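Journal club side-thread
Mid-discussion, someone asked how the predicted structure for our own chain would compare to the paper's figures. Pasting it here so we can look after the session.
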Amino acid sequence: MGAAIAEFKRAGMAEADVGAIVTAAGVAHGTFFFHFPTKEHVLLELEQREEQRIAKQYTQFLKKPHSLEEGLREAMRLVVGLERRLGGVLFKDFLALHFSQTRPPAQDSQEHPVISGVAREIELAQQQGEVAADVNPWNSAVFFLLGFYALLITTNDWPTRDALLEDYVVRTMRSLSP
């Protein structure tokens, strides 16, 4: 897995060389395909690991007193941390696979814990009267994260990216207000 991730960071998933991966891992060529039927399966496993890691960190944050805005910012901070760990090339491949129509099916068809966490935050704020009663928390969490992911992959080299992400949070909060 580590050798595959290193090669994906270097070349991107499409251009990654399975020969280089197995050489770096010190295994036979067939061993790679025994564990991962396709290169996409490597990313799928990475996605599951990283989503669980982010969800665990997010859950810890949510145990402390915070506002909805702080909760949204924390979700963003954790995903930006993932982007930094993976690097721009692999992060784009990671998100592309996440939204791909040819994505291999997940083995355990779990719900998306990050979306669920953000949706719970919106729902709690709604119960406290801080979010409009007609807001659908699940849909709003999906809209928020989809927009955020789109901004990350399309503005990663913009000098104004941080200001754009800041504005995105402000506008999201405004759209949820009663």
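Post-session note: The radius of gyration is 18 Å.
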